[in-house]
Amino acid sequence: MSAKPRIVVDTNVLISQNLSPRSLPARAVARAVNSSIILMSDATLFEITETLFRKKFDKYFSAPAREKFLADFEQMATRIEVTTRIQACRHPKDDKFLELAVDGQANLILSGDQDLLVLSPFRGVPVVTPMQYLAED
After folding, report:
1. Half-sphere exposure of 88 (CA within 13 A, CB side)
2. Cα within 13 Å of Cα(128), Cβ side
3. Which of 48, 78, 111, 132 could form a disulfide with 116 if both were Cys (CB 3.0 to 4.6 A apart)?
4. How far apart, in Å, are the Cα atoms of 38 and each of 28, 56, 73, 122, 135?
């Protein structure tokens, strides 16, 4: 029996999943949740929280819906303590996902962010879009 893959899911994929529950990102996250271990760090959870509570999302999600999503995500994901510091991404705020992938021994980073996608594979970890992830089998 092989171990479940360990996956880092970027904020943009999680937000897209919430905006459109039938979208490719939503299907990719559902697949990842059902077949993998989802990783998070304090820094990635903070970014997800901060992004989800931006005023521009008020028209899409109620505060209770956002709080429920975050509580569910935090309970479902495996928290990794990140100690590695990486400066590899052309958009430095995205380095937190690379750090999580390295310290969490991830098998995959799921992202729609070109700043991360251009680095694939990063230290042997593929960075793939939801479409690429869904096409794997």
Report:
1. 18
2. 18
3. 111
4. 12, 27, 9, 18, 19
- The answer to whether 134 touches 31, Cβ cutoff 8 Å, is yes
Phi, psi of 45, deg, nearest 5: -65, -40
Q: Say how far apart CA 137 and CA 127 lie, in whole Å.
A: 16
Q: At 56, phi and psi to the nearest 5?
A: -60, -20
List the CATH code of the domain at 6-135. Answer: 3.40.50.1010
What's the pLDDT tens digit per position in 56-106? 999 998 999 999 999 999 999 999 999 999 999 999 999 999 999 999 999
Domain borders along the chain are: 6-135
Structure tokens at 134: 């869904």
- Inter-axis angle of helices 42-52 and 11-19, to 10 degrees? 40
The reported pTM is 0.93
Q: Given the DSSP bridges, would you call strands 108-110 and 127-128 parallel, antiparallel or unpaired?
A: parallel
Contacts of 6 (CB under 8 A, 6+ apart): 36, 37, 39, 78, 104, 105, 106, 107, 108
At 111, list the tokens. 């992202």
